[in-house]
Amino acid sequence: MLSFRSERRRTRARLEEAGIEFLGETVNTGVCQMAFLLDPDGTEFLYEALCWF
């Protein structure tokens, strides 16, 4: 079974290879995981995944 942390690292690496720039580290709030990122055109996004497991 894959841990959420190892899967998150692999997903982040794939996105970075595709030209996505992360603005800092992924934040764990205890309720969700959040990451701020830029797409190749410079558009800023907030990625959020609930931690209900």
Provide the descriptors you would attach to this structure in a database record.
53 residues; alpha+beta; 4-stranded antiparallel sheet; 1 helix; 4 strands; 26% helix
Short overview:
This protein has one helix at 4-17; strands at 21-22, 27-28, 32-38, 44-50. With 53 residues, it is an alpha+beta fold. The model has no long low-confidence stretch (mean pLDDT 84).
What does this molecule look like?
A hairpin with a 5-residue loop joins β3 (32-38) and β4. The chain has one helix at residues 4-17; strands spanning 21-22, 27-28, 32-38, 44-50. It is built from one helix and four strands; from the N terminus they run αββββ. Strands 1, 2, 3 and 4 form a four-stranded antiparallel β-sheet that branches. The two termini are 14 Å apart.
Describe how the helices and strands are arranged:
Blueprint: H1 4-17, E1 21-22, E2 27-28, E3 32-38, E4 44-50
Content-based structural category? alpha+beta
How many β strands by DSSP? 4
Helix content: 25-40%
Low-pLDDT sequence parts: none
- Tally of distinct domains: 1
Q: What do the pLDDT scores average to? A: 84
Q: Order of helices and strands, N to C?
A: HEEEE
The whole-angstrom Rg is 12 Å
Terminal-residue CA separation? 14 Å
Count of DSSP helices? 1
Instruction: Outline the biggest β-sheet.
Output: 4 strands, antiparallel
